[in-house]
Hints:
Elements (H helix, E strand, L loop, with lengths): L1 H11 L5 H10 L4 E5 L2 E4 H17 L7 E5 L4 H13 L2 E4 L6 H11 L3 E5 L3 H7 L8 E5 L8 E2 H5 L16 E7 L7 E6 H16 L11 E4 L6 H13 L2 E4 L6 H11 L3 E3 L2 H8 L14 E4 L6 H10 L4 E7 L6 E5 L13 E2 L4 E5 L12 E6 L6 E2 L3 H7 L5 E9 L5 E6 L4 E3 L2 E3 L1 H9 L4 E11 L3 E10 L7 H11 L8 E4 L13 H7 L7
Parallel strand pairs: 1-11, 3-4, 3-5, 5-6, 6-7, 10-11, 10-12, 12-13, 13-14, 25-26
Antiparallel strand pairs: 1-2, 8-9, 9-19, 14-15, 15-16, 17-18, 18-20, 20-21, 22-23, 24-25
Helix pairs in contact: 2-3, 3-4, 8-9, 10-11, 11-12
Amino acid sequence: xxxxxxxxxxxxxxxxxxxxxxxxxxxxxxxxxxxxxxxxxxxxxxxxxxxxxxxxxxxxxxxxxxxxxxxxxxxxxxxxxxxxxxxxxxxxxxxxxxxxxxxxxxxxxxxxxxxxxxxxxxxxxxxxxxxxxxxxxxxxxxxxxxxxxxxxxxxxxxxxxxxxxxxxxxxxxxxxxxxxxxxxxxxxxxxxxxxxxxxxxxxxxxxxxxxxxxxxxxxxxxxxxxxxxxxxxxxxxxxxxxxxxxxxxxxxxxxxxxxxxxxxxxxxxxxxxxxxxxxxxxxxxxxxxxxxxxxxxxxxxxxxxxxxxxxxxxxxxxxxxxxxxxxxxxxxxxxxxxxxxxxxxxxxxxxxxxxxxxxxxxxxxxxxxxxxxxxxxxxxxxxxxxxxxxxxxxxxxxxxxxxxxxxxxxxxxxxxxxxxxxxxxxxxxxxxxxxxxxxxxxxxxxxxxxxxxxxxxxxxxxxxxxxxxxxxxxxxxxxxxxxxxxxxxxxxxxxxxxxxxxxxxxxxxxxxxxxxxxxxxxxxxxxxxx
Length: 530
């Protein structure tokens, strides 16, 4: 009894992730925590299911330091897995459901996952790969009916008690491994800790909660549209749980009409939509027929929000305040934010550094550059990842000098506001001039016929590289190469206009909404120097 009390007291004093849900179950037992389709769980019910899963995992031999891979669409079980493993010191390894077979095999084996939990859609995929996972001892299916050779999630956890597992967790213990896509080579597994994520919850909550006109976030009804295997979406859920708010998870991967209907029916007050999602949502022909009067918080991130898309959001959702967050997975994931109260005249900025996070802008030798000069953003603070899993060389390179090197090219003004210029590897050098695709993309986005676009560099014998724009037109519209080039000439220096333009039905994107420029570079010229 004394040991139990001692562990409870110790956990209550630590910045550990599982305690967030345990506290909410005690503070708001009858409040709705999570809505997923017909499933509606109070905080007491949700925490009970998490505890049952925690005990079930312990019984399988999953312990502190063990890894569990998860391949599923958004669902309540996915969030239960995150929290259950947090309570017992295990690590979640969330898998991108759009990865090819070889990519999944690499991540599961590299992470040394001992168990594999999957949703119904992915059972055949995993069954076909079982021989390729020598370290996976147990398979668990989130399915309506049991699958031969696998544990059935619902009937499996039902056998276990719902009391707190009471495993002593340290703040610096690993919480999960998020594999980042990267531009070259194999994915790198960013190891994030309990303290990383709790501090991030605090910082993001301050960022939103301190904005004038925003109050009582615990009564928020939050809709997380992107997949929760990605830290942008899961991080958004974390903020909601941190406040004791209600989360609504989508039952569809991405459907603009469904999202608008959900906002209306569930009286959603806060939503996370990455810029690509916002673009397609705004293209709905009957957008204004829905009642969105409840919505007042619009969070954007994971990619740069084009100024034209921002203008359209304000036009169609006049009640919302746009919170622009910027960062990357290795930073847990946010480093800066632009709140609505500071956005006027700075719409192209991603705001200032969050408290406790230091940002420097440096040259290739890690020397600070003058204000207003383009350089690489590097970071230091309590939200920096622990390491890249089993990759000391990549860890040392990214963390040289004690600062995390982002590979993002930015400039900073005298007030500390950050402006994203581009990814370091995406910069185009043409005739000795540094050209940043994001600047050109922002201009092309403003053309009334353009739905989305991407700009890349292609090899040019005379200039080293030349600029290529890849454009997707809005439904029913058509453009010519000359139209795009002439439009850019009107709004940009001549050397920044595209030398060639191609048109696609849709840009290749990863599930985070980021354009896969490496795919475009492979498609549009074997002679590209990358």
